[in-house]
Design a protein that fits this description.
mainly alpha, 9 helices, elongated, signal, LysM, RPF
Length: 206
């Protein structure tokens, strides 16, 4: 289950996380760096448990609450931990990329950056996650890998590599092609949502 049987709702969870990430609880942010020197990390299994609590394990979560992805990054925390090198927001990055970014945020702020740290068993002394953020694939709502990695071209070689911040509309405009045609030509790569493309995907343009 996502929550214990104590009637806790998401309101206090988000409020606690917001306080840590925005620096309201500045001492709480600084404390792990003082009391637990050295790199901090957690296993993939631990991050999956945290994600199950934070987002029901939906690594592409975007519910309009200001937090994104399986581990519910705010846009500011995603940027601070270097996640924008993978995608503009966490929900647009792969599970592996989100975990790699979470490792950095954990090292910067400690487990207190996640209100679900306790339920997920997240501590400051775990073994590092063994993930490949460069070659990670997208995930479905259950957190499992898609059968076809989203960043690999399907149905022929692509001639344009999606970059962070790209949209199908911006690519269509830049290459003077129709948006509908661009989507149809790359539907096997993009999937069912033309508004969601991921950095690293190879698209056929023109």
């Amino acid at each position: 289950m996502m929550f214990s049987g104590k009637g806790r709702d998401r309101g206090p969870v988000r409020a606690a996380r917001l306080a840590v990430l925005t620096g309201v609880a500045g001492a709480a942010v600084a404390l792990p760096l003082v009391t637990a020197p050295g790199a901090q990390a957690a296993s993939v299994g631990t991050w999956e448990k945290v994600a199950e609590c934070e987002s029901s394990g939906d690594w592409q979560a975007d519910t309009g609450n200001g937090y994104y992805g399986g581990l519910q990054f705010s846009e500011s925390s995603w940027k601070a931990a270097g996640g924008t090198k993978y995608a503009p927001r966490a929900d647009q990055a792969s599970k592996e990329q989100q975990i790699a970014t979470a490792e950095k945020l954990l090292d910067q702020q400690g487990p207190g950056a996640w209100a679900c740290a306790g339920e997920g068993g997240l501590t400051s002394g775990g073994a590092p996650a063994d993930v490949d953020p460069g070659g990670g694939s997208g995930t479905d709502s259950g957190g499992s890998q898609q059968s076809e990695p989203a960043h690999e071209p399907q149905g022929g070689e692509g001639d344009y590599t999606v970059k962070p911040g790209d949209t199908l509309a911006s690519i269509a405009t830049a290459h003077d092609v129709g948006l509908k045609q661009l989507y149809e030509d790359n539907k096997s790569v993009v999937g069912g949502d033309e508004d969601l493309i991921l950095p690293g995907q190879e698209l056929r343009v023109g």
